[in-house]
Amino acid sequence: MTVNARASDGMTDDEKRHDQLTRAPKSDESDAAPRITTTQHGDTTRIDVADTAAVRPGNPDKQGA
Question: Running DSSP on this structure, what letter comes out for residue 25?
């Protein structure tokens, strides 16, 4: 199966992710926003936290640790 190919339920992986993240009673569209970005550099894939991510990893009380 290719990336984002439709499964037997008729939804792509992206559609399933969106559906799952917006299903909760108090959720909204921002909950389904991408939290990471990926870039290819030759044979290497770099994964970064998206600038638009509402929640970022790490301890917010420690700056530049």
Answer: T
Contact yes or no for 39/46 (Cβ under 8 A): yes
Q: Please give the span between the terminal C-alpha atoms of the chain, in angstroms, as a whole number.
A: 42
pTM value is 0.52
Q: Domain coordinates of the chain in residue numbers?
A: 13-49
Return the pLDDT at 1: 43
- H helix intervals, the chain: 13-22
Rounded Cα gap, residues 16 and 10, in angstroms:
10
Specify which residues 2 forms β-bridges with: none
